[in-house]
Amino acid sequence: MRTMLLIFMPMRLKSSRDVLAGVYRGANEHGWRVQLFDSFPDRRRLQEILRYWNPRGCLVHTGEDRDLLPPIAFGNIPTAYLSDRRPGRFSVNQDPSVTANLAIEEFLHCGVRSLAYFAPERDALWSRERCRTFKAAAASSKLPFYHTRSGDPELQDFLIHLPKPAGMLVAADAYAAEVVNAAERAGVSIPSELSIIGVDNDTMIC
Hints:
Helix content is 40%, strand content 19%. By secondary structure, it is of the alpha/beta class. Strands 2-1-3-4-5 form a five-stranded parallel beta sheet, with helices on one face. Helix 3 packs across helix 4 and helix 5 (154-161) packs across helix 6 (173-186). The longest helix has 17 residues, at 14-30.
């Protein structure tokens, strides 16, 4: 019987789909089987899933602070977490400072006078880390930094009052589309007044 790997990860963001594609490539190379769950079961349902599939390992990406599937729920099954730096778990993380520095470099090339970050009101742990590193990089650039979690209509007002031209890093491409729509409604010109960088490389949105 082939080795079974269970993945608990929502597929809404392209970055998650890219991770899944990489996992499938690795699984195929090693002859593993992969079973995906794009929602998070409660503890009772998780135990049923683990008994049925009897996996050799699990990969979990909750994307938020909520402890939906803590390590203790998996017993002795090796479990890795994505973008989750909390103690007591093996985690694979990206370096948010790389994203922040690349964004700052591009914005400076565009000649912006201010920098901003946008994420939804209930942003995830990885988003807050991205904001923290972007704010630190902005400080080194000596440009003023602004941050908002508010959607429309507050987002329109935020964009109107940003010192122009401005550069905004957005937590994910899905949210960048919200900024573009808000800028259009607010009469803020893109890219002459506002440059936007999203994260995920989601070509359907970009």
